[in-house]
Specification:
This protein has 271 residues and is α+β, with helices and mostly antiparallel strands. It has six helices and 13 strands. It is globular and about 60 Å long.
């Protein structure tokens, strides 16, 4: 498993540097000076309105044509696919974690993996065959969470305001979000959602990756927003990682998006 190889390699590289093995904490040092939970909740609500998240209630399923291009050594080690530049057809039941990933290019073209109720399966001859696959258990829900992020993050139970700053000539405001507490937790992620102060659209999201290691974090820039049948979605996610000193780990791209093109029963093949 390439993911396991990456984790082993990272462990070796940073073994002598204890700071990397601390639980990553996204809270800024001066957060107490800016803390305002009511303002944070209001901004999250305004973000949801700006993104039209109410439209997700009209979708029983959706299908997205999605690309992912990985860069460099760490990019290559961080994914399970045969090529560095991949294209998929992703189908999901929104606000759930049941879905399928079909490979559209390269050596694995036509391969379909799915996840249902936490179990991974592979479609073989049109039938779902249960097969454990830790990589697909990570990547299929991860792609879904990025696509649905403006609505999904509304489910967090704690929010706080961390202030504003100017980036690339645009004022952005930050809200930290998590579940239970905003303090770092071993198995629960923290998120910082940076909103364009004028449009309330998401500019970028900082996040921990507890599923990988406690010290790992990333930043995803939400770029090039477009409308797909009324849904406002970013078509480019530029992903950085604290494992890299500079540059991108990978770039995800949303090429197309359609709702209710696949019957919900097809995404629940395990009886």
């Amino acid at each position: 498993m390439k993911k396991i190889a990456l984790l082993t390699l990272v462990s070796i590289l940073f073994y002598s540097c204890a700071v990397f093995f601390k639980l990553k904490d996204l809270r800024p040092e001066n957060m107490e000076l800016k803390s305002n939970q009511n303002k944070a909740k209001q901004l999250i609500h305004e973000m949801g309105v700006a993104h039209g998240i109410c439209l997700w209630d009209s979708a029983q399923t959706y299908t997205a044509t999605f690309g992912d291009e990985f860069y460099g050594f760490f990019g290559k080690q961080s994914h399970p696919f045969k090529e560095q530049k991949m294209e998929f057809s992703l189908s999901y039941i929104p606000n759930d974690f049941n879905g399928q990933l079909e490979v559209l290019n390269g050596k694995e073209k036509g391969v379909i993996w799915g996840i249902q109720s936490g179990q991974t399966y592979k479609l073989e001859g049109g039938k779902a065959v249960l097969k454990k696959n830790k990589d697909m258990q990570f990547w299929i829900p991860t792609y879904q969470y990025f696509i649905e992020f403006p609505k999904r993050i509304q489910e967090a139970t704690v929010f706080d305001y961390i202030g504003s700053k100017e980036e690339n000539g645009v004022e952005i405001e930050g809200i930290i979000a998590s579940w239970g507490t905003i303090e770092p937790q071993k198995e629960i992620d923290q998120y910082i959602i940076w909103l364009n102060a004028n449009t309330k659209r998401i500019a970028k999201v900082e996040y921990t990756v507890r599923d990988v290691y406690g010290f790992v974090s990333g930043i995803a820039h939400f770029n090039n927003y477009k409308y797909f049948d009324g849904f406002l979605l970013p078509t480019e996610f530029l992903v950085e990682s604290n494992l890299l000193k500079k540059g991108l780990l990978h770039k995800m791209s949303l090429v197309d998006f359609k709702i209710n093109r696949k019957d919900i029963s097809l995404l629940l093949p395990i009886k």
